[in-house]
């Protein structure tokens, strides 16, 4: 008996799932374990060992963080505040629940940090739950400007029953259109303004946006999911100090920790409401196992004094310059390409983001397509987004980044077949791993 996983999915997805389903073995524990092990081994080789990962929404944890990761702890629900747990006998785990948020507060210079959300999506939903009622309006970045699914009606705000409107956006400034913002907020009267994009080359003008939001009676949420590693290191920008009321982020992207979400604020009333929304509102077992590597990662960022963040942004500029020399249309050229670890290419003339991404994947270079602020409504994503947070951890230096840019040029600009390029990419990874020891 073969059940179709998702008969409502696209033809492309259904084809792929049908092909995978046809290769599954018997449903015995041994066969299933074998199937899973083969898949994980092949994945680890293709992606972790041989891949050049420029996908901005991922990272690799440090070996110290990995060393304290014990999945079994996550199988022990430890619910409620230390001292009044629903369960008994778990008091040693209380350390994790005090250590992780207190390190996070130090790192962010915030009074309160809620670390129990399983993801930034859930952290955002907790903020919507705490600060808005069904039927309220929130104003968010348009998708073509990097507004995330968890800001849009199809995602978490829809679950909360919120009305979602797009903020006016200035594609030239790569930020919210400040001239339009005041009148827009007066008209729409949102409860919450959400900024912080999935592609962010330059800081938002948080102070100016906060001033206008507050004047219109709205609170400002800055979603630093992608920027968290920089923000936590005191780089890029300090959203709370600049005027945002709430900060959320993913802990597994530039932050470099385990998957999870954080909500930080200086406002005790907001903190209390968010806390109740996270637990018991949106989680039961919030997975204490995550908190150990999260705490170690936070301590590493604290001790590192911004060095990793600086390497990531320097690498992004090196990569952007090299890609421009190859002949790519690099976004933000007039302003030095980027002030973060992100780089964006406009590949509309090369078949669009999706086609370029697939061609690079065949060459062992992994990243994602993304919308760009100047694309027309309904136009498929015309951009490629690159992030340097993983390659920096893997030991890529300036020369390796230039070689990577050249491989991308070979594949996308000079018509090289991806297969042979993949061999060169794997060789480059081996060389760098060997050098890093
Ligand atoms: C990636 C991302 C998220 C979602 O993060 P998860 O932890 O995977 O839920 C939320 N907001 C923004 C801006 C993101 O880029």
From TrEMBL:
<keyword id="KW-0032">Aminotransferase</keyword>
<dbReference type="InterPro" id="IPR015424">
    <property type="entry name" value="PyrdxlP-dep_Trfase"/>
</dbReference>
<comment type="similarity">
    <text>Belongs to the SHMT family.</text>
</comment>
<dbReference type="InterPro" id="IPR015421">
    <property type="entry name" value="PyrdxlP-dep_Trfase_major"/>
</dbReference>
<dbReference type="InterPro" id="IPR015422">
    <property type="entry name" value="PyrdxlP-dep_Trfase_small"/>
</dbReference>
<dbReference type="GO" id="GO:0008483">
    <property type="term" value="F:transaminase activity"/>
</dbReference>
<keyword id="KW-0663">Pyridoxal phosphate</keyword>
<keyword id="KW-0808">Transferase</keyword>
<dbReference type="InterPro" id="IPR039429">
    <property type="entry name" value="SHMT-like_dom"/>
</dbReference>
<dbReference type="InterPro" id="IPR049943">
    <property type="entry name" value="Ser_HO-MeTrfase-like"/>
</dbReference>
<dbReference type="Pfam" id="PF00464">
    <property type="entry name" value="SHMT"/>
</dbReference>
<feature type="domain" description="Serine hydroxymethyltransferase-like">
    <location>
        <begin position="45"/>
        <end position="407"/>
    </location>
</feature>
<protein>
    <submittedName>
        <fullName>DegT/DnrJ/EryC1/StrS family aminotransferase</fullName>
    </submittedName>
</protein>
């Amino acid at each position: 008996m073969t059940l179709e996983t998702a008969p409502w999915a696209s033809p492309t997805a259904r084809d792929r799932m049908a092909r995978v389903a046809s290769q599954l073995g018997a449903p015995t524990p041994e066969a299933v374990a074998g199937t899973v092990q083969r898949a994980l081994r092949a994945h680890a080789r293709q992606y972790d060992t041989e891949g050049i990962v420029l996908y901005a929404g991922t990272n690799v944890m440090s070996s110290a963080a990995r060393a304290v990761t014990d999945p079994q702890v996550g199988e022990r629900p430890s619910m409620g505040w230390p001292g009044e747990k629903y369960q008994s006998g778990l008091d040693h785990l209380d350390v994790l629940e005090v250590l992780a948020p207190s390190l996070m507060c130090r790192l962010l210079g915030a009074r309160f940090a809620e670390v129990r959300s399983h993801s930034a999506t859930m952290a955002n939903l907790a903020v919507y739950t705490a600060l808005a009622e069904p039927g309220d309006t929130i104003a968010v970045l348009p998708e073509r400007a990097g507004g995330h699914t968890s800001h849009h009606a199809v995602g978490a705000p829809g679950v909360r029953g919120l009305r979602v409107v797009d903020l006016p956006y200035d594609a030239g400034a790569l930020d919210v259109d400040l001239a339009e913002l005041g009148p827009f907020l007066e008209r729409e009267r949102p409860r919450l303004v959400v900024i912080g994009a999935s592609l962010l080359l330059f800081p938002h003008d948080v102070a100016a946006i906060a001033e206008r939001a507050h004047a219109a009676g709205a609170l400002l949420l800055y979603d630093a999911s992608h920027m968290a590693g920089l923000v936590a290191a005191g780089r890029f920008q300090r959203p709370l100090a600049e005027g945002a009321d709430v900060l959320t982020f993913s802990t597994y992207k530039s932050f470099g920790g385990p998957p999870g979400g954080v909500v930080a604020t200086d406002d005790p009333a907001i903190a209390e409401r968010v806390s109740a929304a996270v637990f018991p509102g949106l989680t039961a077992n919030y997975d204490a196992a995550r908190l150990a590597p999260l705490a170690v990662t936070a301590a590493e960022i604290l001790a590192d004094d911004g060095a990793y963040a600086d390497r990531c942004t320097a690498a992004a500029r090196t990569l952007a310059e090299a890609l421009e020399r190859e002949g790519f249309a690099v976004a933000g050229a007039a302003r030095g390409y980027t002030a973060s670890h992100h780089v964006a290419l406009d590949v509309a003339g090369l078949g669009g983001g999706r086609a370029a991404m697939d061609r690079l994947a065949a060459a062992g270079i992994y990243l994602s397509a993304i919308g760009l602020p100047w694309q027309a409504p309904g136009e498929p994503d015309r951009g490629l987004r690159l992030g340097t947070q993983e390659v920096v951890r893997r030991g890529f230096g300036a020369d390796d980044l230039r070689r990577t840019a050249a491989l991308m040029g070979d594949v996308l600009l000079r018509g090289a077949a991806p297969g042979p390029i993949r061999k060169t990419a794997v060789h480059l990874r081996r060389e760098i791993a060997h050098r890093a020891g």
